[in-house]
Structure formats: structure tokens, C-alpha cells
Design brief:
By secondary structure, this protein is an alpha+beta fold. Helices cover about 25% and strands about 20% of the residues. It is built from 4 helices and 5 strands; from the N terminus they run αββαββαβα. It has helices spanning about 1-20, 65-75, 125-130, 140-150, and strands spanning about 35-45, 55, 95-105, 110-115, 135. Strands 1, 2, 3, 4 and 5 form a 5-stranded antiparallel sheet that branches.
Length: about 170
Amino acid sequence: MLGVIRAAAILVCLYMVAATASAQPPVSPRNSYERILVILPIIGSGTAADPMRPSLIPAPGGATPNILNIAISVPMTGPGVAATPAGLAPTAPQNLILGYSWVKSDDGNSALTEIVMRDRSAFPAIMALPGVTAFVKGVNKVTDIQTAFQQYKKAFDITKFGAWVQ
């Protein structure tokens, strides 16, 4: 009888250890997918058909996102990014953008933007654009991003900025 009680106690303990060991905390929606933080010019006339937005963000109901065109036209190579051979570049419209968040700069001419994408395929093209300052989340230091963004918006706080995508 004592052996049965010990065996049951051991099984209960093992079950509890296994249940807690396999559980992992969920990834925060602010850290999922691939993210690039960019300082972009603001485009759009401010109408419902053409709202003001960062330059790489398509208008609602618009055609192919500008980012896809950039990703196709520039060779995709760099650290952590697989090359995209020209023959394998997508030809059908695809939305690489899962979400984005942006705030106007203090002067109202620039957009401090976080763009969330499925993969990093368009990152090298975005980073190569003239006049665009870009940082990859998880690669660049948070202090560098904060300093660059505060040049455009003095009260900018990176801990309170970002897109939530699930």
C-alpha cells in the first residue's frame, strides 16, 4: 500500500512539473513579426480619398503597397536577409504590411513610423532610400532610435509607441 501511495505522489509531482515546464509566456504583440522604425515624409492631401500618411503607406483601398514595389525593384541582400532572385520576385499584389503606427513630427512634415511586416524582405530597400532614416527593431539600439526620433519630436517616448499586431 505504501508503494502505491509513493507512486501516486511521484506521478502527481511529475505531472505538475511537466505542466509548468511546458508553459511559455506569450509573445507581446508589440514584439511579434518583423518591425522597422522609419522617419518618412508625409504624403496625401488630407481628404478621405487621399488621407495624410507616411510615404510608404498605401491609401486605404489603394493599389499595391509602395513597399512591394520597392522590394521588387531593389536587390534584397544583407545580414539576416535571404536574397530574392529577380525571377522569384512576386508579380501579384501582396500586402507585406501587417500594421503600422505613426506620429507627426513637431514641424508636421515628417512621420515617425513603425511598420510591421511578415518578413524582412523589404528592409534593405527601405534602408537604401535616399533621405530616409530607418532602424530595425531588435538590431539597432533603443537609445539610438530614441535619440533620432527625438530630433523630430522632442517629447517622443519609444516605450509608448508602436503597432500592435496579432
